[in-house]
């Protein structure tokens, strides 16, 4: 057996690497989620100033036993490597995951990193083989998010019944690229959202967004085949009070995502969350010509947003557990 490094430039090798992870997700999740193969390869081969990604595989001849996906943060959280490990079920309990984790640790330490983070899919009670493996090897549970799903398209009558205007606010919508007039406001909202979103006990540095960083991110997103629908609420002073984004990747049309929904603290309690979600959902469904599942994640302590999702008809699927390991 040997460790091989995967950088995405060899499409055949990358396909074998990706298949291990995708097969495991399809087998273990009722509603599998994750980036498509080419979208992921774009992350590995791209030149993102905020992060770089690469992979490791444990192989025995032509047989891939398991894989590790590493994200190296380059702007904030530069002490961290985020890792996801997947093992072909045929080769579990044979030390495959442990060998991959040992290799990840060695590479992280050699790069001066002091912490590994991981997110593991778990059952509603917060446990799984993944959480058991991580905790047995010293990872500490730091946060849990509830994964909710809904099948699309929703009945238009149901969507319309939930929609309502909030006096004093105007709704503005756009697609893949933020209009120039809103770049400053939207970048600032991203920064505040990064600060205010529940982090549990995780030790994370806040992402500081600028218009330039936002433009670059949107450009990369389009290049990766992603599409986005955005709806914002604007107050009487012309300030962005709330926003929501939904989208996906055309290469994986059955998987759609509710990305951020954020309401500025001084505008909360007025129903702006659902006020922006409903028209954004209408926009998303207007282009939907096939069945799909819309996925969203929220911290359990974010009860108002979970309640909004339940009103829309989302139901609980599983949980995503965040864990950290200090390196020495």
Structure description:
The chain folds into two domains: 2-113, Aminopeptidase; 149-316, Aminopeptidase. Helices cover 33% and strands 33% of the residues. It is built from nine helices and twelve strands. It has helices at residues 11-28, 37-45, 96-110, 129-136, 156-162, 183-196, 211-223, 272-286, 303-312; strands at 2-6, 51-60, 63-73, 80-87, 115-122, 140-152, 170-174, 226-234, 240-249, 255-263, 292-298, 315-326. Helix 5 packs antiparallel against helix 8 (272-286). The chain is globular, with a radius of gyration of 20 Å. The model has no long low-confidence stretch (mean pLDDT 91).
Produce the secondary structure layout.
Blueprint: E1 2-6, H1 11-28, H2 37-45, E2 51-60, E3 63-73, E4 80-87, H3 96-110, E5 115-122, H4 129-136, E6 140-152, H5 156-162, E7 170-174, H6 183-196, H7 211-223, E8 226-234, E9 240-249, E10 255-263, H8 272-286, E11 292-298, H9 303-312, E12 315-326
Parallel strand pairs: 4-5, 10-11
Antiparallel strand pairs: 1-2, 2-3, 3-4, 5-12, 6-11, 6-12, 7-8, 8-9, 9-10
Protein name: GNAT superfamily N-acetyltransferase
Domain N-acetyltransferase: 4-188
Keywords: Transferase
């Amino acid at each position: 057996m040997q460790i091989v490094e995967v950088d995405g430039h060899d499409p055949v090798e990358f396909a074998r690497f990706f298949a291990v992870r995708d097969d495991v997700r399809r087998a273990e999740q009722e509603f599998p989620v994750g980036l498509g193969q080419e979208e992921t390869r774009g992350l590995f081969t791209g030149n993102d100033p905020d992060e770089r990604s690469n992979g490791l595989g444990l192989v025995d001849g032509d047989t891939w036993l398991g894989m590790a996906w590493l994200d190296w943060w380059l702007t904030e959280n530069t002490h961290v490597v985020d890792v996801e490990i997947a093992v072909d079920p045929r080769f579990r309990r044979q030390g495959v995951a442990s060998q991959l984790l040992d290799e990840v640790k060695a590479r992280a330490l050699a790069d001066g990193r002091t912490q590994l983070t991981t997110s593991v899919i778990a059952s509603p009670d917060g446990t799984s083989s993944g959480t058991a493996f991580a905790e047995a090897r010293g990872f500490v549970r730091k946060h849990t998010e509830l994964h909710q799903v809904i099948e699309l398209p929703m009945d238009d009558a149901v969507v319309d019944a939930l929609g309502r205007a909030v006096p004093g606010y105007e709704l503005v919508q756009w697609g893949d690229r933020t209009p120039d007039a809103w770049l400053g406001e939207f970048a600032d909202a991203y920064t505040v959202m990064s600060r205010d979103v529940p982090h549990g006990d995780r030790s994370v540095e806040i992402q500081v967004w600028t218009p330039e960083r936002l433009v670059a991110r949107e450009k990369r997103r389009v290049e990766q085949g992603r599409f986005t629908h955005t709806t914002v609420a604007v107050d009487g002073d012309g300030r962005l009070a709330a926003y929501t984004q939904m989208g996906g990747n055309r290469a994986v049309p059955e998987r759609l995502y509710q990305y951020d929904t954020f309401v500025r603290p001084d505008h909360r309690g007025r129903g702006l969350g659902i006020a922006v979600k409903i028209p954004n959902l209408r926009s998303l469904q207007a282009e939907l010509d096939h069945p799909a599942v819309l996925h969203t994640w929220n911290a359990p302590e974010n009860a108002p947003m979970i309640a909004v999702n339940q009103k829309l008809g989302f139901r609980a699927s599983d949980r995503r557990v965040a864990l950290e390991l200090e390196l020495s």
